[in-house]
Amino acid sequence: MSQLAQRCNAINLAEGFPAPPHLKNAAVSAIISDSSQYRHLQGVCDLLAKIVKQMHGLDIDPLKDVAICCGQSEAFAAAIFATLDPGDEVILFDPSYETYEGCVVMTGGIHVPLDPPQWTLDSSKLPRSFTEKTKAIVLNSRNFLAITDEVYEHITYDNLKHISLASFPGMQERTIITSSLPKSFSVTGWRVGWAIAPAFLASAIRNIDGRVTDYAPAPFQEAALTALRSPPEYFESLRRDYQSKRDYIIKLLGGVGFKIEFIPQDSFFLFAELPDNCPLSDVEFVKKLILEAGVVAVPGQGFFHTNLSSNEVSNLNYQKRYVRFAFC
Ligand SMILES: Cc1ncc(COP(=O)(O)O)c(C=O)c1O
Hints:
Elements: H1 2-7, E1 11-12, H2 21-32, H3 42-56, E2 66-69, H4 71-83, E3 89-94, H5 98-104, E4 109-113, H6 125-129, E5 134-137, E6 145-149, E7 175-180, H7 182-185, E8 193-196, H8 199-212, H9 218-228, H10 232-255, E9 269-273, H11 282-293, E10 295-296, E11 298-299, E12 322-326
Parallel strand pairs: 1-10, 3-4, 3-5, 5-6, 6-7
Antiparallel strand pairs: 2-8, 7-8, 9-12, 11-12
Helix pairs in contact: 2-9, 3-9, 4-5, 4-8
């Protein structure tokens, strides 16, 4: 689909936005000052500790509880590799971000389908998904490790505030927070992310990072220092901008017949259901959109992992009826 979109020079509603000029300048200065070696920037961990305290009231040790990684994607993978043994299972909700699936496939991913159109959780399904092999859940549970993905922590709507699961009583010691720079600062290709976890887990994650990528890119860690020092007004204006973009795209797509029952409460993606009178699948629709309108979006089926032939779930046809539009 990406190749077709490139050939057609399609407008990309799949991803992407330009980086803010002050961050570009920070990265350029770092490159010019020869920040070009393998490097761990303790300053990034120090700033993260400050932010986590301000936002969630959590005390963390910036020397021991943080692992800087190449984006949330590596932080998540390293968290999985650091904590799971062969045969362990991880519970994931479905639909979910694509890379989770690839990481847990080496161990065992158990998908709990959320129910459309609001993507709510039927609470009877969750306990049935736990087995004696379950080691972690990507979200929340009492007796298991929780791995959270908080990349949209600063992009929330309707005055909602992001609350980290780790800030709930008793959760900090069993939660690995993963997050990154890209979404909050419009720098998806810079690959700076982190895991924040109790020291023994963070140390295991750093160990995996050391064997896999051995540090996030140095100049972008330098630029992260500038980003993470952004004043509260930066985040307020980020939220205001996205709020108007979200409201605009909902109106626009709703106006041409898309069914938008689930209104995003964070992120800059809209998961829109194809109009009832559209006979195409998500993939067919996106191909046609590229060829005839010169616009590319993402077919929704890549976000679903529940087996289509599963007996437990009677009707999963909805998996081919969603398209993801970015509004960044
Ligand atoms: C929910 C979610 N998590 C993680 C990521 C990837 O983050 P990173 O670029 O830091 O690896 C994305 C990117 O789209 C995302 O939507």
